[in-house]
Amino acid sequence: MTTxxxxxxxxxxxxxxDPEDAITEYLRFIYHHRNDSxxxxxxxxxxxxxxxxxxxxxxxxxxxxxxxxxxxRGDTALGGRRVQIAVLHMAAESYESAKLELxxxxxxxxxxxxxxxxxxxxxxxHLYARQWSEARRAFALRTPGDSTSATPLxxxxxxxxxxxxxxxxxxxxxxxxxxxAGQAYARDAVDGLNAFAIGAASSFLVVDAxxxxxxxxxxxxxxxxxLRYYRGNRRNAIREVEAYNATVDKRYAEQALRxxxxxxxx
Length: 266
Known about the structure:
mainly alpha; Serine Threonine Protein Phosphatase 5, Tetratricopeptide repeat; 0% strand
């Protein structure tokens, strides 16, 4: 089998959804073309695509970085490979690492197309990280001037349209005075009623035992039970607020992503 046929076979394996055999053939091709930097760097990029198809993100990044390291001077595809590395970091929720790669392309890559692509991914990265102002800035830089397609997205990300959050401190203090009030504030009425019922029942048991002068029961049973539910009620109120805020942010980000996809539609 000639070395060129190795590459054709590897491509066929990858197209057929067999990344493991594709990687084997690609690496054999690289071995036989060690001095051909142009073909080697492109093949390493294909190895990265095969690893990514398997969900092996660490190996995919290794292959893409080898593609960068072996690239000849003046290779115009370097920006695209850095963007691919950033996407791998985003898939692993390593947003800060992704931003570094994308900023490097957005600031320094000589190709305008890759700079715009990097800015788009940078905006998406900021959305995933719930950094609305930074996302809006990146999208605005991607479409400088009066871009009709980008106008709805930029308007949606304006400060006046940011999602409203509940306060964890308010929820904690509400539940301090009325068990379940913090959960109700976080718009979880069912959990709020449950917390109120448990708090009322445990309070009644403490008061009833004290009225009957069963001090041992108060100290050993009812008071500890009341305190455990009371403290748990406050902690749950904070968790409910955090969950509510996360849900609001997720919906906001998803709508922004839908609007961003519309800007990419010709």
